[in-house]
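Q: Protein A?
A:
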Amino acid sequence: MTQAGRQGSPRNGSGRSGKERSSQQRSPQGGNFSGGSRGGAGKRASGFGGDRPNRAPKPREERFIDPDLGGQPARGTEGTKAAKPSSRKPAARKPGAKKAAGTPGAPKPKPRTGAPGAAASRAFGSERFGQNLGPVRKPGRKKGPRGNVPQSELHDADGVRLQKVMASAGVASRRVCEEMIAEGRVEVDGQVVTELGVRVDPKTAVIHVDGLRIQLDENLVYMVFNKPKGVVSTMEDPEGRPCISDFLKSNKNTGERLFHVGRLDVATEGLLLLTNDGELANRLTHPSYEVPKTYLVQVRGPFPQGIGAQLKAGVELEDGMAAVDSFRLVDSTPGHVLIEVVLHSGKNRIVRRLFDAVGFPVQRLVRVKVGPIGLGDQRQGSIRNLGKQEVGHLLASVGL
């Protein structure tokens, strides 16, 4: 190819000189640098948008000076940003803000750490295991007037300081235990103690905190067993059927002589208490203490109205009248109805016999609660130890 042909080829800009090409690239109008597909390259060549028109800088705003602050800039006005007005209402404008504490409509104060009712000062409030059952509804004994009982009658010179005994039992830290004593929340042998220097014998003293009994005997065991269907409510079965001891083999308390509180028939599932505390077991099963038991009952549907009122009023059985304390329809599906009943009677197969008497035989029966202790999400066939707060509630429910 001749020199003239090379100068007129497309690779050389169709005969344009290098000065012409460079002047077109630096054109203030920002021409199409070798086509639209290379527009990005043109921006890079001109310094990331150097072909854009120059804009005048904004005038710098003066910072607002608040004369009430001694010539200092007001908060939120640093730079050019002004402070945003707060969306929160002033305390004086809140409903009931001007009312005295404790009067109707007054705002409730937020609980502080260490104050009565807070988790840090609740008995066994920092316990990791077990269920939080809240305050005791029916304490075993009433508190007496503060300071009327001579503390010297409870003092044992050879004993251990009361706050140390409480802290060792897991009630709370020693400092919080001292606050509990000073607030009159601790009872020793039925008498309120408010002095920090009182010493007690842990082996013989009966201590309550907020109505909760502190169990100081480490040899006593309290457990919950979620009994499956087909398991016999005995520790040993001569016929070789599955029994409670088969589920205790993997538990660390296998060396303890445990016994079950009450019974569940073979077909019934649910909560069964295990313990070696004979006094507690006797009270839980004695009819005079009327410990409530909650069951979930599945029967065939539909379930007509009036049957629940009939069960609450009482049904005549072969061994006398029997009734439920409460009746509640939980769920209803085609062909099945789930009912919750609560009763304190400990008669044999009482729930099944009651529903048989009203013409609705039980299809499935599960006990979910005994007194304050519930199954929760405990899986079937498992055994767990009760938490210390749960033990205190269980003892308080029968006056211990």
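Q: Protein B?
A:
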Amino acid sequence: MPKAVRYTRYGGPEVLEVAEVPRPRAGRGQVLVEVVAAALNPGEIGIREGVFAAVWPAHFPEGQGNDFAGHVAEVGDGVAGFAVGDRVLGFAPRAAQAEFVVAGPDALAPMPAGLGWAEAASIAGAGATAWAGVAAVAPRRGETVVVSAAAGGVGVLAAQLAKLRGATVIGTASEGNFAFLRGFGIQPVAYGPGLAERLRAAAPDGVDAFLDTFGDGNVDVAIELGVSPARINTIADGRAVQRYGVHSDAQEQADEPAIWARLAEYAAKDELTIPIARTYPLDDVRDAYRDLATRHVSGKRVLAVKPFTSEGNSR
């Protein structure tokens, strides 16, 4: 029987199990995907721990993971545009960390040649979140944009997308990630107390837009620097959204296969780099989330549901 990540109660990584489940089938208007890689995202930790139970309650036994990449295994009646064997990437809320996923064609995008499995699996979640944040603040050529936690899975993509629009990008990070950010043409600045002063020194002509991917007072800093609330987006500080009226655009605002396909093409053409910090076998899902919870990482963590190579081959 195929395997899938499941949990039957709220808690830490110890509640996760890799269980045998019935093989799903593609019904009318559905596509069955044999998953090769599935990404991990920080928000999944809070859902599994019950932090968001009032808004997104679990329905036990619950699945986990959202974004994935794999091969089309079955195509249901009434589906056009997909064929068995096609390489695809997609979004399946609380279901992606499994050997098989059922999705509608409106939740899938083609995976172009030249794109690796781990990178493809990161697009519909982190990639879309980064796209939405950048679109919300609309950087223009010659402007200066600050991205908090710029070495993280979303931050590093948002910073690159802002640069593609012609902006100068400053990224906050720990000093250990400075060289990593410079490799993308991002000017690093250390986070922590005194951040506003360091950003003023780094951007003496002012900051035009601010992308907060971490919370922890970053929106307050942006306001202190004189950034208009209309040019600030946060995915981690709901209090600041209520207080200042800043944007909070995230994956839901870029939940479109056309956007995912565009991001995938950028990545396949090396116009966008999706750094992969580490891949883990499916059976090591607990360790993967323990590592993710430290938040000390540059790039994405991904589950290898099937063994694959960095060139996008699977076996």
